[in-house]
Each structure stands twice: as structure tokens, then as C-alpha cells.
């Protein structure tokens, strides 16, 4: 007897016996869709040489050891991948429409092919002539990349088994269609089934597979969340339409550090690498102004200097506005509450706007002190010294906690010409990188020393 159909939430993956408008597990609306059972179960062929039988780690033969990483020559891409492409890895790349995912991967395919990797680029959204036209515009017409336009997964896997490539790029996973699944392309069932087949193919044949995934309006990769658990690496391609900067961020990487970033600049001839992101993010910084503070942050393994901009103005409304771009809005509310409760500096009746210049998104708590400095500078209309960097974490008690990798932050600031730094007391500083250090113990001391308030 056939199995009854189930209904699955595309947001959290919970399953139900009947359809409803609201998911009882996560509370999201209109995310439940019908899922039909697979017509065939998973293949019985094992991924390992021992057909699933456990072996001792020391008994693994050298033939089963994967080859060293393959580098593309694009330093920013290799950095995010953890030093290069691992054979047999499955990589998922997500990003907003039009942000440059296809451009980045076509350039990466050409770079890997020129390094000697047999590369196949499979497009489910464009014809081969359209892909070739984009390659000509990017100056990649002579790259030894094999192109294919297909959406049927069975045909794709059959072709790949005959071609025996080393790198396969699938653009995109939402357009792939498995004929053993009775649902439309892009549905939860199809995305999960095709991602599973491609990931299994990568492990079984020792082929690296890069899959492009579209994102929802919330910024998450469309489809079931289990797809991100299947693959080895999840990359997000971020950026603002009004900026030429693009950030490739690793949110999961089994073969390298997570939260690593690579910075690219969108030009007329494609994406260009930015080897010194700090200089780029600060290149448009003008004369010292109230509300402008330079934050020395850490993204993955590299230090990055970025400008934080704050604006505080009287509010004509009964509910003051709090607008944040590039930072956590809840954390901004926490900083405002600590400033009022511990330092007696009210922001009631004032609109507060905070922006991270350059389109970068900051998530580390070490930006707390820089945000507080920008808010106080904007409120008091007093600019900080232009050659000063600020970093440190603020606790709810008003105490300041030292940030990790302090020496790397100070060295990066010194390299870009900064002469002073404000960082919490405590923690390993070393020589300070030759900068004049101000090290307050708590937020009240910081306000008193920098802005002359009690």
C-alpha cells in the first residue's frame, strides 16, 4: 500500500499529517507544502570502500586519502574555502538575486580550469549561448570550461559519470528536477532530493560539487534547512545594491574556519579581488565628523577596519525611531539601555540611526564600545580624534570586557596609519603595535575620559 502524503514546513522542516496555514512548530505562515514519498529508496551502494563496515582509522589505505586542496588563484575565494577546494566536497552558495553568484562561480570555474581541473558548468537557468556570452563579457571565452544546459538530474548524473570531471557547478539547485519525485522543481521535496543525490555523487566519485541556492526574503536559502546540513560548506554572497563591494562569507565549513570572509568589488569586467578590505572600507571616509568611529573587528581569521556612523536627532513622534543597517538592532537597544542606566545618559525623545559603512554586516560583540562611542559622539556633537580605533564588549553592568585577538586588531590599525586605540583594560595587549592606548575599566570611565562627562 502506498504511503500517505505528508506536509512539511519549508522553514523548520517539521512534518504534519494534514495541511494548515500556520506551522505549529515555528509559527511561520504559508510555509507548509505537500510532500510525496520517494518512488525509490536510497541506493544500497556504500560511500566507502568497505561497503559500510567499520574499519580502524589506522587501517585506512593511502589510496583512500583525499588529494591535497586545489587552489584557484583567486586568493579571496581560496581563503573562504579554507585554503582551497577539497576533492569530494559539496558546497552550497546562496545570495540575493542579481548579487553576482553566477558571475563569481563562472570566474571560479575558469580559474580552476586553468589550474588543470576538469570543470563542468551546468546551468538550469540559462542556455549555453547565454553563459558563453557572459563569459566573453568577463574575458573568459578561452577558459577550458565545459558548459551544459540541463535540469533533469538523471541526465546530468549520467553525463557526469561519462565525463568524469573534478569540479561540477550546478546553477541552480532550485531548477533541478528529479524524475523519481512527483513534485514541481523548486519544491521542498525536489530541492532535498536533488541536493542529496548531488552530495552523494560528490562523495562517491570524489568530485567537488558547487550548488547555487536562491534565498528567501528573510535571507535564508530557499528550500528545506536540511540541505545546509547535507553539504560540507555553506557560503553566502552578500552585498548592498548601492555599493560595489561584495562579501563572500562562510557560515559553515567542515574543512576550514567558519565566519571567514572574502571581499570582492563589482566592476564592469566582473568581480575583482580586494586584498586589503580595511583600506577599501575606509577609502570613502571624509573629514572627522560627529558620530563617525572606526571599529577594529575580526572577520574569520583576518582583522578588518570599518567605519561606524551614528546620527542622533530630536524625534517629532511619541515613539522615537531606532534604525540599524549592518548590525543587530536588539543589541543597539541594549547599548542604549546601559548608557542610560549606568551612565545617566538618556536617549528618550531622540531618533537613533546606526550604519556600518561599505555594506559590511558585523555580528561580533566587540563592536559594542565602538557603537557606544559613535552614539555619544553624535549626541554630544563632538568628533573623536580621526586616527583612533575603538573596540570592546559592554556588559549589562557597564563593565568592559576585552576582545579576542587584540594584537591583530592593533597591528592592522597601525598598518593603516592609525596612531591611537581605545580598548578595555585586561586581556593580552603586548606592545600595543606602537599605538597610544586608552584602556578604561568600565563604561563610566570611558565616558568620562573621552567625552569629559561624569
Supply the key terms.
454 residues, alpha/beta, Rossmann fold, Ribosomal Protein S5, domain 2, 3 domains, 7-stranded mixed sheet, 11 helices, globular
Task: Explain what you see.
- It is a single chain.
- This protein folds into three domains: 1-35; 71-275, P-loop containing nucleotide triphosphate hydrolases (Rossmann fold); 280-451, Ribosomal Protein S5, domain 2.
- It is of the alpha/beta class and 454 residues long.
- The model is unreliable at 37-50 (pLDDT under 50).
- It is globular and about 75 Å long.
- It has eleven helices and 21 strands.
- The protein has a nine-stranded mixed sheet with strand order 6-5-7-8-4-9-10-11-12.
- 26% of the residues lie in helices and 24% in strands.
- The chain starts with 5 loop residues before the first strand and ends with a helix.
* Biggest β-sheet strands, sense, barrel: 9 strands, mixed
User: How would you state the average pLDDT, rounded?
Assistant: 85
User: Would you identify the CATH H-level superfamily of the largest domain?
Assistant: P-loop containing nucleotide triphosphate hydrolases
Can you count the beta strands? 21
Structural class of the helix and strand makeup?
alpha/beta
Order of strands in the sheet with most strands: 6-5-7-8-4-9-10-11-12
Beta percentage is 15-25%
Oligomer: single chain
Form type: globular
Distance between the termini: 78 Å
Number of separate domains: 3
CATH topology heading of the largest domain: Rossmann fold
**Helical segment count:** 11
Low-confidence stretches: 37-50
The CATH architecture assignment of the largest domain turns out to be 3-Layer(aba) Sandwich
Q: Please tell me how large the radius of gyration is.
A: 25 Å
Under CATH at level 1, the class of the largest domain stands as: Alpha Beta
Helix-residue proportion: 25-40%
